[in-house]
Fold this protein.
Amino acid sequence: MEVATLPAIADVRAAADRIRPHVHVTPVITCRYFDRAVGAAVFFKCENLQKVGAFKSRGACNAVFSLSDERAAAGVATHSSGNHGQAVAFAAGLRGIPATVVMPRGTTEIKRRAVQGYGARTVESGPTLAEREGTTQRIADAGGAHVIHPYDDADVVAGQGTAALELLRQAGPLDALLAPIGGGGLTSGAVLAAGGGAGPSDGDAAPPPVVYAAEPKLADDAYESLRTGVRQPERPPHTVAEGLRTSLGDITFALVRGGVREILLVDEQEIIAATLAFVTRAKLLIEPSAGVAVAALLRYRERFAGSRVGVILTGGNVDLAALGALAGRIDG
């Protein structure tokens, strides 16, 4: 891949302007419990309170509203079993264009209805990435729809980067920035935002934060990709963090490899315990994918002690029954 094809900080700033009318500026909160547990000043960026309940609205809105009127008229298509599908449906609805979301066989009816509730058509595909992508491309080829990849898309990455850009403006200088990683769109955007500073006039007032990513051990393809220098395929979908079961793409691998200090692995018990601890202590609902970052913050506290740390909470789309089931999986 040519470096010129990668998005840059200017694209993130342009995305922030483009999507401003369509998404929330989500709050940043602190919680004394986590400050004490880590020995740091922790700033949580609450993308669980974003439109459609996840940061994915940022990338989807940027991708949809970046299209020319002529290109947008044919609609958009994507593949997703969760938040990205809802986000694309939401963004397409705002622009008044058709959207088709390919959802793998086995997707829960609740998720399917959620996507349809935003006005999108859903199409079932096989469960593998190749099958999902193949079905999406066939739909695009047949009707001319523009394909919006869930994460390996320059416009999507730039849109996701606006979450970190906002965080830096809201919290002030940070020593470290931590986000969960699956396909790498959010982490890639965070790399761009961290390297570019909070604004074009920031100068050299403060060094950029070190970017860390958090990943489940049962879905450690990003960790292995950085360790080996070769992009690894997605792992079998065993982790409770459903949103992190995907693998890096070409764009995201290049940005993550060039800008992430370390990928921090956490196990399933740590993910569940951290998710429940955050809900209990901060009184905000987060999904296990967001809990992965909280788990890494706690497990690797020596990395962050004595510093100012920003943590992006990616989403809050989990129902209370599922949360109760998680509580039952805690050992001891």
User: Anything to note?
Assistant: The CA atoms of residues 213 and 263 lie 5 Å apart. The chain is about 45% helix and 15% strand. The longest strand covers residues 210-216. Residues 199-203 have pLDDT under 50 and may be disordered.
